[in-house]
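Reopening: HupE/UreJ family protein still failing for me.
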Amino acid sequence: MSLRLRTSLLTALLLLTQMQIADAHIVSARLGDFYAGALHPLLTLQDVVAWAALGLLAGSLGAASGRWLVAVFPLGLCLGLALAVAAGLAPTPPIVDAVTVLVIGLLLAAALRIPVALLCMLAFVLGVMRGVANAGELVPQTDRVLYAAGLASAGYVAITLIMALVLTFRRPETEPAFSWRGIAVRAIGGWLAAIGLMMAGLSLAT
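Support: Ran it again with your exact input. Result attached.
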């Protein structure tokens, strides 16, 4: 055995004896709680459907009305999370989530111009409901502040992006609601209403 090989083997042996448990997980930096709050709703069907429906409704009503949801919806998420942690508020039954999606879908399909106050109230109530539901993932080791920040950031980004996509697609400044673009958005509303109806049926069946 050559001197170089023996030296390499001895060095490797020394390194192996000095090894400790690797702690490269981002959770060790506590940022994992932020990402958990941001990613959990994006992996839950009820959140994905409800958030998408709300963003579509906001975009269909125009930027002047929809921009209020950018602040109202994340606030509702944080309040719902806080109520679940502090007061032990239980999540709403699945039938309530299904009816909410059904109502939003019908509003989209009918192209109703609901007042801004009613839109904000709907967004706030939905945010509180989903905030309470997302509190189920909290464990004693979870940093509540980081988790809430991640959840609110996800709500802000989701509503903003979906609303912007709808506004860009519809071109509300140049095309009326009965143009083919408006009809396409209304058709999506019909599909959402159908999804809400199926969710309601499944929740009642179980």
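Residues 144-170 form the longest helix (27 residues). If you still see a failure, please send the error message rather than a screenshot.
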